[in-house]
Specification:
The protein is 44% helix and 21% strand. With 458 residues, the chain is an alpha+beta fold. The strands form 5 sheets. Strands 1-15-3-11-12 form a 5-stranded antiparallel β-sheet, with no helix packed on it. It has a 4-stranded antiparallel β-sheet with strand order 7-8-4-10, covered by helices on one side. It has a 3-stranded antiparallel β-sheet with strand order 2-14-13, with no helix packed on it. The longest helix has 65 residues. It starts with a helix and ends with a helix.
Length: 458
């Protein structure tokens, strides 16, 4: 019996060789592409989880730093009688010498001169030169013919001698008023030069007498601080108590004002509680990404996440100050639990605040942060800076994932190219096979005709 080769191999039978090529290609490449794709998805998820952990840490650290800048979390100098004197903190150091007893015996004052009354600000002031002397500063005030009272004030103000000139106009007319800076050393004179005409000589003062009237004498502020007499040129005193500014408001001989430090006891208690709550939110999120008992998280094997967890765990026992009774958060009742979260014993914290409020304040939020006194914000910032450093653990982990992602993408690109090549080879092979089968079919038809002819001849 003759064998129908074309029918057996499917030539002309409707078999879809294109689908056959696609199926063979998929069978060969889909498993490998799916495996690489799964690894790519995991790598992307880990990159996202690591970025989320880093962002949460940065947010926590920055929020704490900004919060501690508030005056609510700093010990502030205060006065028990603000009508006599007020006090404020000077940045850069810790106030020393408080509490202190202050008596304001005299306020600093500026010398004030006033001229006789003229008709208006546009009245002629005179012609010639005046000499304005303030300590060692000497300025020449020159007026030309026709210069007015307003011109004279403008010339004095432009001299830069530290004397302010104004023209005061009321119902009686216009007067020139001169005011210097406070303090005895800022007393000034205004004298006429030989070329000054009679009109200009109306504006003179030699220190004790002159054409102008002295309505206020320059004076220094006089205070008694802890029974030590002191004298200052200004009512704003910044050198009597280190890092404390004293503003004198009125003299009150015989009245003592107490200057002390108001420690933010209640707000510091709130600060510790808020810190513990925020820390626990961060730690629980990190625990989830690293995996809990019995389940693995995306970052369970990540060295950066593990180092972040380990560093954060040291906050409770890290030394925040090298002096004082309280040196760590654990001294204030903060304890680390087995899952890494923190708990706070409020009784311990309240006892510490009651015993030494200043010490607790300087422990948590020192006026001047240093390597030995970083405070809570400084300690967390140190951890954050290390983890986020160019060669730090988080950057190193990200670099590993980025490298893996690049490698996986290269593999996917190569598989795509290999898939296309493989499909092309199969298509070429089946095309060649189809051509050969067509030839066989043609030969078979010829043989069938010959055989039929032979049989007919029989």
């Amino acid at each position: 019996m003759a064998i129908d080769i074309a029918s057996t191999l499917g030539v002309g039978s409707g078999i879809n060789t294109a689908q056959l090529v696609a199926d063979l290609t998929s069978a060969s490449f889909d498993p490998r592409e799916n495996a690489v794709g799964t690894r790519m998805t995991t790598a992307n998820a880990r990159i996202s989880a690591l970025a989320s952990a880093k962002s949460s840490l940065d947010t926590f650290s920055n929020a704490l730093t900004e919060l501690l800048k508030s005056s609510s979390y700093n010990g502030q100098p205060v006065s028990n009688d603000a009508s006599i004197a007020t006090v404020s903190l000077i940045a850069g150091g810790i106030p020393k010498g408080l509490p202190a007893q202050l008596e304001v015996r005299q306020l600093a004052a500026a010398q004030v001169l006033q001229s006789s009354t003229l008709t208006s600000a546009t009245a002629v002031a005179g012609t010639g030169d005046l000499t304005l002397t303030v300590g060692s500063t000497v300025k020449t005030i020159s007026l030309t013919a026709g210069a007015t009272l307003a011109d004279l004030a403008t010339k004095i103000n432009a001299s830069g001698a530290g004397v302010t000139a104004t023209v005061v106009t009321d119902q009686s007319g216009a007067r020139l008023v001169l005011k210097g800076e406070s303090g005895v050393d800022k007393a000034f004179t205004l004298t006429a030069e030989p070329n000054a005409d009679t009109d200009l000589q109306r504006f003179t003062w030699d220190g004790s007498a002159g054409s102008m009237t002295r309505s206020q004498t320059a004076a220094n502020a006089k205070i008694r601080l802890d029974n030590v007499d002191m004298e200052f040129a200004s009512n704003e005193i910044t050198t009597a108590i280190p890092y404390v500014r004293i503003d004198l408001n009125k003299a009150a001989i015989g009245t003592t004002v107490t200057l002390a430090t108001d420690q933010p006891t209640s707000s510091m208690s709130d600060l510790v509680q808020e810190f513990v709550a925020a820390y626990n939110n961060l730690k629980r999120a990190l625990n989830t990404s690293m995996g809990t008992s019995g389940s693995a998280g995306l970052l369970s094997s990540d060295t950066g996440a593990r180092e972040m967890s380990r560093r954060l765990a040291t906050l409770a026992t890290m030394q925040l100050s090298d002096t004082g009774t309280y040196k760590t958060l654990s001294d204030l009742g903060v304890r680390t639990e087995r899952d890494g979260t923190l708990t706070l014993n409020t009784k311990t914290l309240n006892a510490a605040l009651a015993a030494d409020p200043e010490g607790v304040t300087q422990l948590l939020n020192p006026t001047v942060s240093s390597t030995t006194k970083p405070g809570l914000g400084g300690a967390l910032k140190g951890i954050t800076d290390y983890l986020n450093g160019t060669s730090g653990p988080l950057a190193s982990s990200k670099a590993v994932y980025d490298k893996l992602k690049t490698s996986l993408q290269d593999q996917l690109d190569k598989l795509t190219d290999d898939r296309a090549d493989y499909s092309a080879r199969l298509t070429k092979t089946y095309s060649a096979m189809q051509t050969q089968l067509l030839r066989l079919k043609s030969t078979q038809s010829y043989l069938d005709q010959q055989i039929s002819a032979w049989n007919g001849g029989d």
